[in-house]
Structures are given as C-alpha cells and as structure tokens.
Amino acid sequence: MADPATVAQSFYTRWARVYDTIARRAPWIHAVRTEAADALSLAPGETVVEMGCGTGANLSYLADRVGPEGTVVGIDFSPGVLDVARRRLAAYPNVHLVRADATDPPITDADAVLATFVSGMFADPAAVVSSWTSLVGSGGRLCLVDLARTTHPVWRSLNPLFRALVRVSAPPGSRTMRDSPTELLDARLVAAHRALESACRVTHSATHALGFARIRSGVVQQSITISDS
Ligand SMILES: C[S@@+](CC[C@H](N)C(=O)[O-])C[C@H]1O[C@@H](n2cnc3c(N)ncnc32)[C@H](O)[C@@H]1O
Q1: Domain range spanning residue 166?
Q2: Which of 23, 39, 119, 145 has the highest CB neighbour count under 10 A?
Q3: Care to name a GO molecular-function term for this sequence (predicted)?
C-alpha cells in the first residue's frame, strides 16, 4: 500500500477544487482566517510561512499584513492544490509557493509560521511544531488552527456528525489506521497545541464553529525539540 504522504498528495490533488470551495465558503471560515492572521501580529516587511497552505485560502490575509515589502511563503506537498493557489495569488508578486514537505521545510528563517487544518496530518505533530519554533526562533510567532471534536456542552451532541464528516473527508490511508480518524485528529491536535504551549508565551486561544475549530498562537520563548519516545 502507498505511504500516507503519497495518498494525501493524490487525495488533495484530486479534490483540490472541491476543497477550495469549502476552504473559502464555510460559514465561519473568514472569521477564523482573519483571527489567525491577526494573531501572528505581522508587521510590514516581515516574512511569514504557511505550512500546508493548500489552495492558498490564507495567503492573501498574510500578504495584506506584511505588505509589498514583506514575503509570504506557502508550502504544500500536493501539486493540485498549489496549482489553484498559484492562479489565485498571481497578483501578489511577494507570495511564493513551494512544493515541499512541511515537516522538513526548505527555509531556515522566518518571522512567523501559520498552519491551519494541517497538524492532524502529521505522524508526530509535536516534533513538527517544535521544529517550526526553531525556524522562527526566540520572539518569532506561531499560530495553529485545527479541528477536533467539540467539548462545548450544547454542541457535543453534534460530535457523531463530525465523526462521520471526518471519516468521509479523510485521505483514504487514515481510514485503515488502528485508531479512528477522529481520535487520531483529536490526539494530534492536542500534541501540536501542547508543543506550541511548551515553547511559547500563548498570546491567543479561542474556539470557533461551535467549538470544533481551535486557534492557538504564541510568541516563541525558547525553541525546543520534542521526540515521541
Ligand atoms: C486540510 S488541508 C488545509 C489547507 C489550508 N491550510 C487551509 O487552511 O485551507 C491540508 C493541506 O496540508 C497539506 N499537507 C499535509 N501534510 C503535508 C506535509 N507533510 N507537507 C506539506 N503539505 C502537507 C495537504 O496537501 C493539504 O493541502
């Protein structure tokens, strides 16, 4: 069987246009993307990297904040979503799209990193997030946005529906893993956000979309390396 990364790349390439519609038109998504970009406290002229940028739904929010003298780098490993992003961002000369692995990005310095709806796709999210804290260094900013089951007392009743949506929308490889895709998503969100908390002074923490979407951002105090063992 193909490895999970290859499966994910063909999945996101095949469904790039459908994904793009959801990524831009979900009812709560504009508020989340605005809040995440704001949470990075970007200044004109800075460099910001989006890991797993998909079809580029966040990139104009970032480009508007760093201005024409700043730099935005969008990294994704799926060629289909990058094609959509390239068309969308053609008018922004300072947005650079790179096909690469976000767990080992080909960039050594940046002021800030954003990753939205991606942590759940990493086998070891804590290690990946801690490597991003090293990338931005002390004083750099990091913002994660991820989906998981809600803990909201009213909306918890919708968790079975969320579970069903995750099951149908997860790249095929994740449906055969030992844990259900939803449990895996929850565990990976917790690992990623804990890694951010361990290395950063948390500057923003909020939930959206009935508690299903979590935003957490921080300023790196010390970059650390976390291993799974
Ligand atoms: C759910 S989409 C999110 C896209 C975008 N961040 C957004 O908010 O719309 C996840 C994206 O992460 C990308 N991705 C997952 N693992 C990756 C990795 N290791 N390196 C680069 N891209 C990755 C996928 O190709 C896909 O485009």
Answers
A1: 4-220
A2: 119
A3: methyltransferase activity
How remote is the CA of residue 118 from the centroid of ligand 1, in Å? 5
To test the pocket of ligand 1, the residue of 32, 121, 168 to mutate (highest count of ligand atoms within 8 Å of its CB) is 121
Q: Is residue 48 part of a domain?
A: yes
Ligand 1 geometric centre to CA of 117 (Å): 7
Predicted confidence (pLDDT) per residue in 104-132, tens digit: 999 999 999 999 999 999 999 999 999 99
Number of domains in the chain: 1
- Written as six digits, the tokens of 84 are 């959509």
Distances from the Cα of 83 to the Cα of 3, 54, 111, 214, angstroms: 23, 9, 26, 28
Q: Write down the pTM of the prediction.
A: 0.92
CB 52 within 8 A of CB 115: yes
* Tokens of residue 101, six digits: 């692995």
Q: Nearest 10 degrees: CA dihedral of 77, 81, 87, 88?
A: -110
Distance from chain centroid for Cα 151: 21
CATH number, domain of 162, equals 3.40.50.150
Say yes or no to pLDDT of 155 above 80: yes
Give 95's contacts (C-beta < 8 A, 6+ positions apart): 56, 59, 62, 63, 72, 73, 74, 89
Token pair for 37: 């970009």
C-alpha 121 – ligand 1 centre gap (Å): 8
